[in-house]
Specification:
With 496 residues, this protein is an alpha+beta fold. The protein contains 9 helices and 23 strands. The protein has a single domain, classed as TIM Barrel (Alpha-Beta Barrel), CATH 3.20.20. It is globular and about 80 Å long.
Length: 496
Amino acid sequence: MMVRRFLFVLGILMATGIAAYRADQRVLPRLEPASTPHRVGTYHVHTESSHDSHTELDQLTATAHDLGLDFIVVTDHNTQLAGPVVVNGVVVLSHAELTTPFGHLVQLGATQLLEEEERRGLDILRKVRELGGVPIAAHPADPKRPWTGPVDGLGGFEIASVSASARRRGGPIFAGLLPALFAFRLNRELAFAQILDRSDAALRRWDAEYDPSVVGMCGVDSHGRILPTGLELRGWHTVIDAPLPESPEQLPAALIDAISRGRFHCVAGLFARDPEFEFRASWGGETVGVPGDTVTALAVDALVARSPRSTIDTATVVLLRNGEEVSRTQGGRLHYRHPTPGTYRVEVRLPVPGVVWGYRVLPVIYSNRIRVVEDLDDAAGGPPARIFPLGRTYPSLAIPEDEEPPAAEAPAAEPPGVSDPSETPESGQPKLETPGGGGASETVAPKPAPAEPSPVEAAPPGDTRAAPEPAPAAPAAEAPDPEASTSEPEAGSEPP
């Protein structure tokens, strides 16, 4: 009997030792850094101004500076600073996380705090916007406090949250976090990686909103109570994809503008600070749309995504349309030709090692979204489609609220016997885009085909003259044939 007990205890000790050795030796994959650096920050952080946090602002910013972060978005409960500040070289954007009957809501960009009685009404989203803010649903699929309030008018969803992931992974009594607790003293990064997951419920709620101006945020929800702040801040990074001013006075407003328009992507900071990544709509190899944009199908011949190389395992690039996977490729570049109308986004996934054995494939990069529509009428409820001059970068493409889209031109008379399969039933004219000036698309009359494709010019306002009779050798011009695109073949994708 004693021998059996001895062997049993010995077996437990040996198994524990082997598991500890394995946990100590397991290494997380790393992603190659971007060739062109971006501004990087982190979103959803609490300080001692929140009732459930003990982190001082000076300590928080010092830790962020050591991690190479350029900004942090502080979301203290029901309170915020009077304006942005710079502490320890880090820009602090302070915007309250409001406690409401429907869950938690961040008033991103609001210049003042929403009154307590106004947080109880169903018009809370409108009230936040009246304060100059963008309402973001915090941890909308959190098992503890999901967002149950109005959706129409939301500016974004927190599609990834470290605290919500911990509650999902842990379960009712947090038993699911025992492997992470076991490995914490041996390999903190590996232990922290066990907390991360993919929130299918939060992503479904985001994917149900087709407007790309409804952004996807990734938050760390740091409180500094259980994990070291330096580790918490590496949960998720916000990487800005738009050009930003160097002026310290203009930078805070520019950061809020870029975030609220979807000009950023999320990166799990355990695997990289600022990895190589891009997602864009292209025509003939030139960029015609970036995340946050709505573009017409005639203006796009491909969606292009580029992922970083990994030190251990090859990353998988997944393209999703309205939340459903349409294409994937292993590492490198995904080239998806002729996208059909829909709202597209990208996930970059990596195998994340378990504490002792096995792997879980998780997203480590989330893009924001590009919407493709048939024509401008299909974009009702979202921003008008815009085609901007090729080869230029735009920090902001939003139409001011007081600006109305241009009225459609009167249809020109068609010569007898001439038909165009792309014409619309209402106007009899093809919907073509005007590449110049960054303005909204216009309906244009067909012109004789030039020797080479060139941008189509819109008919002058008020011109209702019939189009001239075309010569027999010069048929009416049509939209460029996407099949003739000179862009490289797609990698690992399938035609829509």
